[in-house]
Specification:
By secondary structure, the protein is α+β, with helices and mostly antiparallel strands. The chain has a domain of 32 residues. It has 2 helices and 3 strands; from the N terminus they run ααβββ. Strands 1-2-3 form a 3-stranded antiparallel beta sheet, with no helix packed on it. The chain starts with 16 loop residues before the first helix and ends with a strand. The model has no long low-confidence stretch (mean pLDDT 77).
Length: 64
């Protein structure tokens, strides 16, 4: 099964450090447990959301 959802929105760009982090999601989310292989290429942010499932063991879902 594959589920895809796309949406668009517009925000005003913040200033200072917030602006720096806005363009570096791989740094912002790196410390969160369950997120792996985070990388950014241009405007694309991708990685894997991983967790342990009792029956299946380790389960990972790629995202982009």
């Amino acid at each position: 099964m594959e589920v895809e959802h796309r949406f668009a929105f517009a925000l005003q760009a913040p200033e200072g450090r917030a602006r720096e982090l806005l363009f570096a999601p791989e740094r912002v989310f790196a410390a969160l447990p369950g997120l792996e292989e985070l990388k950014r290429e241009g405007a694309r942010f991708s990685g894997r959301l991983c967790g342990e499932a009792p029956i299946f063991g380790r389960v990972c879902f790629p995202f982009e």
